[in-house]
Amino acid sequence: KELVESKELLNKKNNELVDKENELNQKNSQLTILNTQLNEFNQTNRELTENKETLNKKDNELINKKENNELTQKIISELNKELVEIKEKLTKKDNELTQKTFELNNELNARSIIQINIEDWSNKCSRLDQENSELKQNNNELVEIKKKLDENNEIIIKENKESYSRR
After folding, report:
1. Among the four 1, 18, 23, 161, which has the fewest Cβ within 10 Å?
2. DSSP state at residue 1
3. What's the CA angle centered on 18, arms 33 and 38, to 5 degrees?
4. Which pLDDT score, from 0 to 100, does residue 144 have?
């Protein structure tokens, strides 16, 4: 009888151990599922981090392009201001030359050809030639600046087209 009771007790303990083993297997299975989900989450997180880095890099590139474009626009604006100043100087010199030419013509008309002092005439012509040379020099500078502005505008138009086509 004692042996039977012992055997029953052992069977009962064995059944309890089997139940615990089943319970542990079930928990182990749940842990495996959770571990798989955690690995998937980590992979997704790595991909999101890479995407964020890529977006940040592209954002920085766009910011740099915008800053470069603003700098180019600023340079063009400065050059345009210089061009306006040179045009104003050129107009002023042209007006002065026109005024001096008018004055010289009045003086020539007032005198008779015989009374013209050749030395005085030569000096005035010299001054006019010098001013005319300055005017030509200013005009040449204006032409060079216009060329530079045209080249810069072409570069900016090309860069803007490339920038918009990339977007």
Report:
1. 1
2. -
3. 10
4. 94
Please name which of 40, 61, 58, 62 lies closest in space to residue 50, comparing C-alpha atoms.
Answer: 58
User: In terms of pTM, does the model score above 0.90?
Assistant: no
CA distance 66 to 71: 9
CA distance 157 to 151: 10
Name the helix (H) or strand (E) containing 54: helix 2-110
Are residues 62 and 128 in contact, defined by beta-carbon separation less than 8 angstroms?
no
Q: Which tokens go with 104?
A: 């010289």
The closest alpha carbon to 141, from 87, 91, 93, belongs to: 87
List the end-to-end C-alpha distance of the chain, in Å, as a whole number: 91
Helix (H) or strand (E) holding 60: helix 2-110
Pair 75, 152: CB distance under 8 Å: yes
The CA-atom distances, in angstroms, between 119 and each of 113, 122, 151 are 14, 5, 48
Pair of tokens at residue 57: 């890099």
Given a contact cutoff of 8 angstroms between Cβ atoms, the answer to whether 136 and 67 are in contact is no
